[in-house]
Amino acid sequence: MLLYHGSNIAVEKPQIIIADRRLDFGAGFYLTSSYEQAARWADLTMQRRGNGTQIVSVYELDEEKLNTLFVYKFEQASVEWLKFVSNNRNDISFSDNHDIVIGPVANDRTMPVLRRYFSGVYTEEEAIRRLLPQKLKDQYAFKTEKAISILAFKEAKLL
Q1: What is the average pLDDT value for the chain, to the nearest integer?
Q2: Contacts of 72 (CB under 8 A, 6+ apart)
Q3: Which of 8, 75, 79, 12 is nearest to 40 (CA)?
Q4: What angle do CA 2, 150, 82 make, to 5 degrees?
Q5: Distance, CA of 99 to CA of 17 (rounded, Å)
Q6: Per-residue pLDDT reduced to its tens digit, 40-63
Q7: CA distance 121 to 141
């Protein structure tokens, strides 16, 4: 299976990024199965950093080795997914012990709904009702070196 990482540089050797910003699934190396989503991430990253160029790095995932890892997968936006994202984005002490977390990505279109949920305006059920029709793209957070070891860099595509 091919996975994609969008950035302002080619990333031949993935690293777990422990950023000071809070991400949906916590610290990790983020990929998607959607080339278009990775291209959007590349554009956003270049704009935020103000340098480089839009590049999508392509990886082959060794799916046979997935069963040797502790993988947490959300099939769609759900109450469980919402709580997990909320914990990662709002609780700096939250951590988990998964090698890989897979699930929908909270993007710019979903953030108004998530902000209202985080602030208590929307219940879990109302937030999910508003998120499900959005057809969210996926994201894969590789959270350990063991997880990263099942990725093989293929190429970097300049956009």
Answers
A1: 92
A2: 84, 96, 98, 100, 101, 102, 103
A3: 8
A4: 70
A5: 14
A6: 999 999 999 999 999 999 999 999
A7: 28
